[in-house]
Amino acid sequence: MSYFVYQFEAVFIQDYILSGGKIKTMVGASELLEAVTSDLLEKTINNLNLEIIAVSQLPDAGDLSLKASQVVLPRRTGGVFMMVSQNESLAKQFSELWPILVSNFAPGLRFSAALAYDENYAEAGKKVREQLNAQKNRPQTQLPEATPITQRFQKTGQAQIDSQADWTMLAKQTHPFNALAEKHFGRVVRDIRYIFPKQFEHKKHDAVYWQEAFPFKTTEPGNHDIAIIHTDGNGLGGYLQKIFNSLNQLTAADNIRAYAQFSSGLDEATQQAAQQATHWLIEQYAHEDNPYKQKAIEQSKGKTVPLPMRPLILGGDDLTCLVRADYALGFIQAFTRAFESATQKFVEALPQSLSGHLPEKLTCTTGMLFLKSNQPFRLGYQLVEELCSSAKKEGQVIAKAANSIMPPSLINFMHTTNTLFDELDVQIAQELITPTGQKLTAAPYAFADGQGRLTLQDLFAIKACFDATNESKLKPSALRNYAGHLHQNPHYAEAFWNRWEKHSKEGKMASAWEDFKQRWSKNGVQELPLSDLITLFALDIHPHVLEEAQ
After folding, report:
1. Phi-psi bin for 228: left (phi > 0), alpha (psi -120 to 50), beta?
2. In 87, 102, 295, 391, which residue has its Cα 20 to 30 A from 70's Cα atom?
3. Taking a C-beta distance cutoff of 8 angstroms, is the pair 132, 124 a contact?
C-alpha cells in the first residue's frame, strides 16, 4: 500500500509578520500563523470527517496500516505540519483544499506545500522535501489580485477592503490574540495578571491604552527604545539530513514515531527556554517602578499589566520577539542558557539511533538590533538577520579552530538611529571602521568564557569602570570622545589616549583606570568595544540584567 505524505510550510514569515509596522498588525500576523496549524487545521480535519491518530497509538511492531479516514501528524508546529495518509483520494482532496483555506484565513502569507507518494514511506518523505525546496523561491499568486481598475490600499499597494486596510491587513487586525501567550507563559503562570502589549502608539492615553500599551521606561518622548531579537539554533540543518538518513532504515511506524519525538521534543525545549526567559522578565519587571505599569494597574483594577516584551515567532529552534532595550540582553542570556540546558535533556531523551547524530546539546546564535519604536521594523529585521548570520559564521570559525562539532552560542548586536538601514557590511564599514582599519565593535560576544571572544560579562565589567556620578570612576564621555577622534584624526586619538591615561593615573581614578586597562587589553587592539559600550550607556543598560539572568 502506498504512503501519501503532505507537507505544508509557511515561508518568509518574518516579512509577513513585520510588514505594516504597527504592533497590532504584527501581533495579529503572528497569531494567525500559530492558528494555521492549530485552529484552522483542526477544523479542516473535522469537517472532512478525518480522524487524527496519535503517534503513541501506532503499532510497536510491523508496518503502518491506517484506515481510510485516518491520518497521522508526525510534525505540527507554528507554520509547519506533515500529514500522512494511505488514502489517495483523501490525500488529493486535502491537498487541493488546504491552500485555498490558508489563502482565505491568512491572506498574504506565502507558503510551500507538496504531496508525494510511494510504496516506501521514507521515499515519499524524501520526494516531499525535494518538492518543497524547489517551491520556496517561486513567485506565488496573491489573492485577491489587484487588477488595474481595483482600488489599492496606499500603504501596501494591495487590493483595498476599506479605508483602513487591505485584505491582509484586515485579517491581521481582527484576529484574536492568545496562542503565543500560552507558549511563553506556560500553565504555571497562565492566570497571573501579566499580559503581552498590543500597541506602540503614544496618541490616545485612555483606559484601554494603558491596559494594552508597551511599557517603556518613561512616558517622555524619545525614551522608546526597544530591541528586535532573532535567535536561531546552530547547525540543525546538517544534523537533520543525518537524522533523515537514519530514519530511512526504519519501518514506516517507527520512522514516524522517531521523527515525531524529535520534532516535538525540540519544540518543547525551545518553549521551555522561552518560558524561563519570560519568567525571568516577569520577576525583573515586578520590582520596577514604571508609570505604564502603575497606570495599567489603576485602569484595570489590578487585572492586567502588559510586560515590556512581545513575542512574534516561537517554533522549532527559532525565537523572534520585541523586548524593551534595557531588558533585552538579560532576556536573551536567560533564554540561551535555558535553551542549552533544555536541549541537552532533549538529546538525552532521544533513542540512540537519533541522539548518536547530535551533539551533547544544541547552541543558538542571536542577532539583536536596538532602535526606536517608531523606526521601520521590517527593514530593521533584515539587519537583525544579517547580524545573526554574521555571528553564525564566526561561530563556525571558532568551532573549526577548537575541533568542535557545535559552534558556541554567540550574540551580535547593534544600535541604530537611522530611518533607512544599509546592509550590515556597508553600515559597519561606514560607522564602525576607522581610517586605520580598527573596528569599533567587538561583537559577536560569547555567553561563556573559552570561546575566543569577549563575553557579555567582559563588556559589562569594562562598563563598570565608568560612572559619570562617581569621582573615583572614569567618565563615559571620554569613550565617546575617543571614538570620535579615532574616526576623524587617528593621530590625535593617540595623543588623547595618552593624556587620558596620565590624567586618570594621577587622580582618584587610578584604580578604575588600571581595572579598565586590564580588561580592555584582553581583546587586543584590532576590535575595540567602543561602540558597544556607548550603546550600553546610551540605552542605560546595567550589569544587573546579566547577573540576575544567571
Report:
1. beta
2. 102
3. no
pLDDT at residue 190, as a whole number: 44
For residues 60 and 47, the answer to whether their CB atoms sit within 8 Å is no
Place of cell 519568567: 279
Nearest partner of 411 among 454, 365, 450, judged by Cα: 365
User: Would you call 119 exposed, middle or buried from its count of C-beta atoms within 10 A (0-12, 13-18, 19+)?
Assistant: exposed
Q: Residue 413 and residue 441: Cα distance in Å, rounded?
A: 9
Residue 240 grid coordinates: 537533520
Which one, of 502, 510, 503, lies nearest residue 465 by Cα? 510
Please give the grid coordinates belonging to residue 46: 473535522
Cell readout for 284 is 525583573
For residue 193, what is its C-alpha cell?
A: 495578571
Q: For residues 485 and 209, which has the higher predicted lDDT (pLDDT)?
A: 485
Note the pLDDT tens digit of each residue in 338-357.
999 999 999 999 988 888 88
- The pLDDT of 493-518, averaged and rounded, is 92
What is the distance between the alpha carbons of residues 198 and 182, in angstroms, rounded to a whole number? 16
Q: How confident is the model at residue 254 (pLDDT cuts 50, 70, 90)?
A: confident
| Assigned CATH for 3-135 | 3.30.70
d(CA 501, CA 214): 43
**Domain boundaries, given as residue ranges, for the chain:** 3-135, 183-363
Give the DSSP H or E segment for 104: helix 88-105
pLDDT digits over 151-172, tens only? 555 455 555 555 555 556 666 6
With helix as H, strand as E and coil as C, how does 208-242 read? HHHHHECCCCCCCCCCCEEEEEEEEECCHHHHHHH
pLDDT at 153: 53
Return the pLDDT at 319. 93
Half-sphere exposure of residue 379: CA atoms within 13 angstroms, side-chain side: 14
Give residue 62's region: left, alpha or beta (phi > 0; psi -120 to 50).
Answer: left
Residues 284, 545: contact at Cβ < 8 Å? yes
Bridge-partner residues for 83, per DSSP?
A: 6
Interhelix angle for 456-463 vs 510-520, to 10°?
A: 160
Which string of b and e fits 436-466 if b means at least 16 CB within 10 Å? eebbbbbbbbbbeeebebbbbbbbbbbbebb
Summarised one tens digit per residue, pLDDT across range 187-236 is: 444 445 788 888 877 666 777 888 888 999 888 777 789 999 999 999 88
**Which secondary-structure segment (H or E) carries 76?**
strand 70-77
Q: Which residues pair with 11 in a beta bridge?
A: 110
